[in-house]
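thoughts on my protein:
***
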Amino acid sequence: MNRIIGTNTYGTEIWSGAMGSFVGEHLLGYNSETWEYDRPILAESYPKISDDNLTYIFTVRDGVRWHDGEPFTADDVLFSVKATMLPSVDSASLKGYFADLDTVEVDGATIRFAMAQPYWLNAEVLGGIVILPEHVYDPEGVLRNYSYSDVTSADAVDNEELRQWGESFNR
């Protein structure tokens, strides 16, 4: 099941589960004590946020593994954001959440998101990214050859390799 392009209620229920019994996890989860999405799940902690509320830095948890035993990494998060925002991917229901996402960079277990403008829900939106395993959905590493800026630029629409990758991802 590809949660980035899936939009039906049944798929969402399978992914999210009843009472939050997720098949897929996020960086942050709902905290029933604070009533906020501030509980670290795949992140080690709530993100470090710059004073201007434009930069959000998450560190992914060590030792987390995918269903097939492969390690979960910050690169999986970056891949998932790129896939979501690629023009040829049918992810309209998610793209709007990241309209103000300017850049994304990975350094080891750390992923840094830079926003174009502050928004009071940025941490929750970023913490709720739908994350897919890069090694399963992009085994050839096509998106690794492109930065987040490349994938979201106007040139991405005319890039044949990206267009073909997105069409394949949509199937």
Observations:
- The beta strands are 28-31, 36-40, 48-49, 55-59, 101-107, 110-115.
